[in-house]
Amino acid sequence: MRSWLPVLRDRRRYLAIEVEAEGRIRAADLTREVRSAQTSLFGDLGAAKNRLRMISFDGRFGLLRCSHDRTEVCRALLATVHSVGGTRAAIRVRGISGTIKAATEKYIPQSTLQPDENERRVDLGLVSGSVVRVHGREIDLAPDDQKITEGSGTRYVGLTSFDLCGEDIDADGTSDGL
Amino acid sequence: MTYFECNLHTLPDGSDSPSRMALAARKLGYSGIIITNHNAPVPPFGSDGARLAGGIEVVFGAEIVAADQRAVHSRAASLRNKVDFIAVHGGDEKINRAACEDPNVDMLAHPQRGRAGIGVAAARAARDNQVAICLDLGPMIHLRGGGRVRWMEAVKRDLDLVRKFDLHLMISTGAASHLDLRSPREAVALASLLGVERDRALDALALPGSILDLNRRMWASVGVEVL
Fold first, then answer.
1. Do A72 and B190 touch (CB under 8 A)?
2. Domain annotation covers residue A47
3. Is the pTM value of this prediction over 0.90?
4. B chain contacts of residue A90, beta-carbon cutoff 8 Å
5. Nearest by CB: B186 against A21, A79, A89
6. Would you give the distance in Å from CA A153 to the centre of its chain?
7. Helices A71-79 & A27-50, crossing angle to 10 degrees?
8. B177: which chain A residues are within 8 Å (Cβ-Cβ)?
9. What is the ipTM of this complex?
10. Which of A110, B63, B136, B223 has the most neighbouring CB atoms within 10 Å?
11. At B53, which helix (H) or strand (E)?
12. Which residues form the domain of A91?
C-alpha cells in the first residue's frame, strides 16, 4: 500500500449490518442493490463522498465501510433498500464502529457462525476441527467430534496459537535448542 | 422517549399478523405500534396474539378511506368513541382538506400520495383542528427515479407548510410487512434527507404516544374532562 501523510489519512467507520430476508441473499446481489440504491439517492457525486464498500457478508450478517462523517447518510441509504435480487429484504444497521475488529466483536454474534463456513482447519491428532473465532492468541475451535466437549458443556474447544505451532517447534528442535 | 410507529397495516390489509409486526417493531426499538387498517373487522384479526407479544404496546386504530368529504366526517364521528386513533387515507385534494377540517381526526396519512399534498387552506384548518400530518416514508423506500423525485417535491412543499403553520408532524413507514419497518434511527436519518431536523423528527416519532394519552381520557365535551 502506498504511504500517505498521517494527517491526511482517510477516516473510516464500519457498519455492522444484518439482512432480514425471505430467501437466501448472495453477497454480489446485496452489493449491486446497495450500489444502485446509493446512486439513485445521491447520484455519482454523493456516492463518491460516501466511499461505501462491502467488507464481508455471510448471508445474514455483514460489514460495510464508509467515510467517518457519512454514517447517518449511509444509514438512510441502507434503509431505502427494500429487495435484494428480487427477494424482499430489509437491511438493519446493528451498530457502527471504528475498526473491523471492534465492529465484529461488538455487533456480529459469533455463535451463529457455522463451522463449515470457515475455511481454517486445525488437526492436532487428539482434536481436529475448524476455527470459529480468533482473538489475539486465543482460538476457539468447533470440533469435528462433539463428544470431546461433553464434559465441560461448551460448544467450542479453547486453544491458543501456542498449541498450533508447538509440535513444529519440537520437530525441528528449536524449543530445546538452548 | 417512547417512539411509536403510527400507520401500520396488518392482515387483511398487509401481509403480517399484528403480533409479528409487534415483535419486529420491538426489536427495532419502538415502544408501541398503532395499527390502522382500512377495513378493520371487529374484533380485529390477531388481537389476542398481539396481546401476548409483550414488551410493546399494540393499539388498534382505524384509517378512514372515503370517496367524498361527507363520508370522512360521518365515518370519523362514528369511529371516535370506538377506537383510540383515527387516521384518514389521504392523497386526494378534497379528502385531505376534509380530514384537516375535522377535529375528530388525529392524523392525515400520506397526503402526498396523489401528489396533491396539503394546501394552504388545509394547513390552516389542520392547525385549528389539531390534525397531525403524517410524513409517510414508504415512497422513499419503495420508489426509485422519477416517481420518487416528484414525491420528494410534494413532500418538500408540505414540510414548508408544516413549518410555517407549526403543524403537528408524525413520521411513519406505512408498513404492510415487517420488512417495510424501519427503526427510529433509520426513520430519523431518512427524514433528515427530506429536510426534517433531528430533534423535530424525534418529536414526530414520539407524538402519537401523547395523542393516545389524550384520546384515552374521558371527555364530556370539548375541553371538559370526566375524572
1. no
2. yes
3. no
4. 178-182
5. A79
6. 26
7. 140
8. 88
9. 0.86
10. B63
11. helix B47-53
12. 12-107
